[in-house]
Amino acid sequence: MNGERNYWLNAGVALAIGLVLSSIIFGWFYSKTRKGDEAITVTGSAKRRITSDLVVWSAGVSSQSPALTDAYKQLSDNIPRIKEYLLSKGIPENQMTVSSISSTTLKARDEDGNETGEITGYTLSQQIEVRSNDVQRIAQVARESTELINQGILIESKAPQYYYTQIGDLKIEMLGEAAKDAKERAERIASSTGNSIGSVRSARMGVLQITAADSTDVSDYGVYDTSTIEKDMTAVVNVSFAVD
């Protein structure tokens, strides 16, 4: 009888110890599993000041006359004079492109402002586009082109458009810098709670923002400023790290 009692007692003790050990092992495994599921997501960025290396500038002239031939003569006289002016400013002819002539037929209007079939004249217009890597020179010529007005040429100068052609190469370099910045941010956040970061869980590149220097403009679709020579290029990445 005593032997049977001791048997069941020993069995109960063994079962209790087994349950305790199982709880400890399960708790350890669960905590490790939960910890392995934890992650931290941060945004890293990198900014560079860049200088445009390509400028596109266009200027146009127009002429108006009751006779089409007279309008054409005025226009054909002005275009060579504009080219001569640009050549005198040091712009090579191979950097100039002359567009085709566009024409508009002018018609008389009745007392209600509606067009009639009567032709009163013609307006012809033509553009000269300059595309150059000599950014500063073209910017200056664009500012001074109103000098042609003194020569009787009513030139319509458009604002130059400034571009940076090495974005592809710089983008790769800056994304690496942005990822490094993201890792440093994640390490500081994790260390403040007594943890450390592990491997990268996911990474997503944000849109590039190319803005005027010191501008705060941003867009979900990205910004590409072409109005200024000096620009700021910002690359952003969102990275998720495992927490150890």
The SS-based structural class is: alpha+beta
The percent of residues in helical segments reads 25-40%
Distance between the termini: 55 Å
Count of DSSP-assigned helices: 4
Taking pLDDT < 50 over at least 5 consecutive residues as the criterion, the unreliable ranges are 7-16, 18-31
| Overall spatial form | elongated
Question: How many strands in all?
Answer: 11
Radius of gyration: 36 Å
Helix-strand string: HEEHEEEHEEHEEEE
Beta strand %:
35-45%
pLDDT averaged over residues: 85
Biggest sheet descriptor: 6 strands, antiparallel
Architecture blueprint of SSEs:
Layout: H1 2-37, E1 39-51, E2 54-65, H2 68-88, E3 96-98, E4 102-109, E5 115-132, H3 135-144, E6 156-157, E7 161-163, H4 167-191, E8 197-205, E9 209-212, E10 223-224, E11 230-243
Parallel strand pairs: 9-10
Antiparallel strand pairs: 1-11, 2-5, 2-6, 2-7, 3-5, 4-5, 8-11, 9-11
Describe this structure as you would to a colleague.
With 244 residues, the protein is an alpha+beta fold. 38% of the residues lie in helices and 36% in strands. The protein has four helices and eleven strands. Strands 2, 3, 4, 5, 6 and 7 form a six-stranded antiparallel sheet that branches. Strands 1, 8, 9, 10 and 11 form a five-stranded mixed sheet that branches. β4 and β5 form a beta hairpin. The chain starts with a helix and ends with a strand. About 10% of the residues have low confidence.
